[in-house]
Amino acid sequence: MTHILVLHGPNLNLLGQREPDTYGRVTLSEINAQLQHEAKELSLCLEILQSNHEGVLVDAIQAALGQQQGILINAAAYTHTSVALRDAIAAVALPTVEVHLSNIYKREEFRHHSWIAPVVIGQISGFGANSYRLGLRALADYLSS
Ligand code: DQA
């Protein structure tokens, strides 16, 4: 069984009520349920964590070493600020896919830069909740090839 760590960054616990015109009305627990459904089909075992704290996310990435085969991450605002998350992903060297609900390149300029993009396999941005499902599929394909 392939084990995947799914990380959701700050404010994603408010999905459903948070800026619905930008992020949609799907809640985080609905996204997690969709991911679990997808994981079953792909024979993946998911460990899912949401945190508003950068260090908690860094700890989770470090703890994935030797336990998980890949990481699916929406680092949310930390995407645009966190060298620590980027360094953690680089340090564990686990195949990682970056996802965003919104298309970050269509939005304010400060969202156009991702600190983690250079250390991930690839990025899926702009498909709403579907970005997660597509990202999980992309990661599963990568790991099985
Ligand atoms: C986001 C985009 C980020 O710019 C923002 O800070 C988020 C969510 C997205 O999924 O579209 O919190 O990562």
Summarize this entry quickly.
By secondary structure, this protein is an alpha/beta fold.
Could you walk me through the main structural features you see in this protein, from its secondary elements to its overall organization?
- The protein has 145 residues and is of the alpha/beta class.
- The chain has a single domain, classed as Dehydroquinase, class II (Rossmann fold, 3-Layer(aba) Sandwich).
- It has helices at residues 20-23, 28-41, 54-64, 83-92, 130-144; strands at residues 2-8, 44-50, 70-74, 96-100, 122-125.
- Strands 2-1-3-4-5 form a 5-stranded parallel sheet, sandwiched between helices.
- Helix 4 (83-92) links the parallel strand 3 and strand 4 (96-100).
- The longest helix is centred in the C-terminal third of the chain and has 15 residues, at 130-144.
- It is globular, with a radius of gyration of 14 Å.
- The model has no long low-confidence stretch (mean pLDDT 97).
- The structure holds 1,3,4-trihydroxy-5-OXO-cyclohexanecarboxylic acid.
- 1,3,4-trihydroxy-5-OXO-cyclohexanecarboxylic acid binds at residues 11, 74, 76-77, 79, 100-102, 104, 111.
| Quantity of strands, as a count | 5
The largest sheet is: 5 strands, parallel
What Rg is obtained from the alpha carbons, in whole angstroms?
14 Å
Strand content: 15-25%
Structural class of the helices, strands and pairings?
Answer: alpha/beta
